[in-house]
Design brief:
This protein is α/β, with parallel strands linked by helices and about 375 residues long. The protein folds into 2 domains: about 190 residues, 3-Layer(aba) Sandwich (Rossmann fold); about 180 residues, Rossmann fold (3-Layer(aba) Sandwich), CATH 3.40.50.2000. It has 14 helices and 13 strands. Strands 3-2-1-4-5-6-7 form a 7-stranded parallel β-sheet, with helices on both faces. It has a 6-stranded parallel β-sheet with strand order 10-9-8-11-12-13, sandwiched between helices. The longest helix has 16 residues. The protein is globular. The N and C termini lie close together (about 10 Å).
Length: about 375
Amino acid sequence: MKGRCKLLFVLPSLGGGGAERASVDLLRGMNRERFELTVALFAQNGSFLQQLPGDVQVRNLRGGSRYDFRLVWRLARLLHREGPSIIFSVLRYANLVTLLAHRLAGSKARVIVNEQNLPSAEFALFGGAQVKGCFLKRLYPQADLVTTISKGIARELASLYGLSEHKVQVIPNPVDVARVRTMGSAKQEHPWFHSGLPVLMAVGRLHAQKGFTYLIRAFAIVRNRLPCKLIILGEGPQRRNLEHLIAEFGLSDDVALPGFQANPYNYMRNSTVFILSSLYEGFGNVLVEALALGVPVISTRCPVGPDEIISDGITGLLVPPADEDFLAQAILRVLKDDELRRRLAANGPGRAADFAVERIVSQYESVFERLASGA
């Protein structure tokens, strides 16, 4: 491979999700002497847009609705005009658009698509398994490589969607551990952190996937036993439903929904326990971030993801998803057991280092260069 490798990232947007955060971290960490970086966005918006490095070129494909099929044509034109060596698309909708555009353009670029979620779990929650599964079976094998963020996703793609094992590679999402810790050290003004009461913490889009209804129900059980507070950072379509549930349990003085925060880490660092209550996850970036900050972690044992990060009883506690009783018992156990809380906090940073951005960027750079060289 002569000169710098022309690498095009493709994403729907740079909204405030784990996949977008990981993509920005990859772009920030990649070697500029080896890669020329461009990002194509279906919509040029999102809370992470301002965090893109200034030398990364941005191409706005001006997508209209959620399923704007003009994007295939627009991306195909971009591929024909700019001729990248490698295309790396992130999130399933972007992956399908990219594979169709690549064929339409007759592009010679090598294509890597990145799968961030377990398809079966997502289809079970949102429906459309037959149609969506058909698209996966027909299009994903056309990619030169599929990267997945957990082993469980890789196994399902091979077993259910016809991908040969040599076409799938597991590379976890990166976490910029140093940045997380620096931002975590910023002063935190929220009065609950100065109240002397335990503060439980969760971060994620206010969406059914994240299981926040179960977390609030679990918190109601805990709150009846111990005085404490709960903060859930994030924004999304379930806000009104969650607010009604909080009011129904009489928890309005004890549960806060401050919305999306540009710096969630100083909230997390000051919390007593961090909780992931998701019904399913592809990986669980936020768990690694909490571990890096030395915060005790409780997570649902999703079909895949969290149990590839957390060792139960060592770096965190794992509980069944969609079960407020088990979750409440785990929260009470951590709040009441000082030794357990200290042990989990002490073991976290070492585990988080396994997912540090430097390690993951190095893996991706090797993959990109191998494919660009024709291997």
